[in-house]
Structure formats: structure tokens, C-alpha cells
Amino acid sequence: MHRIVLALAVMLSLSGPSLAQAPSKAPEPAQPAAQVQSHGMQVLSNLNQLMRGVLYPASNVVFSSQNDNPADAKAAPGQDPSLATDPLVSTFGGWQAVENAALALTDASNLLLIPGRKCANGVPVPMNNPDWLKFVQQLRDAGIKAYTAAQSKNQDNMIAASDTLTEACANCHRKWREKRPAERCK
Fold first, then answer.
1. Cα–Cα nearest to 112, from 131, 86, 92
2. For residue 32, how many other CB atoms are within 10 A of its CB?
3. pTM summary value
4. For residue 168, how many other CB atoms are within 10 A of its CB?
5. How far is CA 92 from CA 86, 102, 103, in A?
6. In a designed cystine with 98, which of 87, 128, 134, 150 is the match (CB 3.0 to 4.6 A)?
7. Residue 59, number of CB atoms within 10 A of its CB
8. For the chain, how many structural domains are there in total?
9. Per the domain annotation, does 24 fall within a domain?
């Protein structure tokens, strides 16, 4: 199977830019995409989709390292790690997966600040609210703390980092997600 994936990658790279760089059709966002003029970026996901697609999975990898030693995570016998859907047993698994997840959380905090993003209910993300900026910074700081803890490969350090991450998430969720439906942002 690994040979097939490698052969496909080689074929795509040799077929020239037209096939190798063909843009894939993005799924239709739940809300109309907003064009960001400063860099030409387009916001395709609402906040809920961003949370479910990036922040939630990365957080789960960080949180899992509190109880289970990432160094012990292994793919099932006969499973090709390059095809694993669980980051902990993938080609870049173990502690490296925890480091990568922590960095994904850190960098994803920038995605929370791109103008034009909407909540799932169509309300604009409250980017001008000082609490939003504070909570995004808390997420960024928690990601950095988790990355440093993952580098130490010490589960006690991961418990402390996970507590910081939990607090960062909970602060924002309490303020916006757990409100009456008309007021909440998710």
C-alpha cells in the first residue's frame, strides 16, 4: 500500500503543475464566505466548523497524553501508519503528534482572528470584544505551554498543560457558547 501512495505522489509531481496543483473544490460553507481584503484570504468555515475540524481534534491529542503515554501508542498489527486516522499512531505519532497538536492549537488561534468569520448561527465572531482577544491569547499561550510540555515527554507536565488548555477553552465557552441561542457564538 505504501508503494501505491508513493507511486501516486511521484506521478502527480511528474504530471506537471496542471494536475499536481489543481485546486480541489472546497465544500460550501455554512455561511457565505467573506473576502478578507488585506491578504486576499477567504474565510470558508464558520467558527463551529473550525473548532470541530482543527481545535477539537488537536485538543484531544493533547488531553490524551495526560492518561496514556504517547510513546506507547502503536498502530494495530498490519495497519500502515501513513494511513492512520489517529494522529498518535500515525507516521508522525507518539510524542511528536502531541507536539504537532499543540503547535496546531497555537497557530489556529490566528484563524480565530481573521475578519469575516461567522458563528454557526450567522452572528459575526466577536473579534472587537476585548474578552475575545484575551481568550484567543490564552489559547495561544496554552498551545505553547502544551508544546513545551510535550517536548519534555513527561505526563505530569502534560497534566499541567492540559489544565491550562482546559481553562482557556472554558473561559471562551462560558462567555459565548453556553448562552441563550440568540446570543451565543459557536
1. 131
2. 11
3. 0.75
4. 24
5. 10, 14, 14
6. 150
7. 25
8. 1
9. no
Each residue's pLDDT tens digit, 157-179: 999 999 999 999 999 999 888 76
Domain of residue 49, CATH code: 1.20.120
How many other CB atoms are there within 10 angstroms of residue 82's CB atom? Answer: 13
Q: Is residue 17 part of a domain?
A: no
**Per-residue pLDDT tens for 73-110?**
998 899 999 999 999 999 999 999 999 999 999 999 99
In a domain, 40, yes or no: yes
Evaluate if residue 64 carries a pLDDT over 80: yes
Number of other residues whose CB lies within 10 A of the CB of residue 29:
16
**Residue given cell 507536539 in the structure block:** 99
Mean pLDDT of the chain: 81
Q: Is residue 1 part of a domain?
A: no
**DSSP symbols for 1-54:** -HHHHHHHHHHHHHT-HHHHTPPPPPPPPSS--EE-TTT--EE-S-HHHHIIII
**Structural domain boundaries enclosing 39:** 30-177
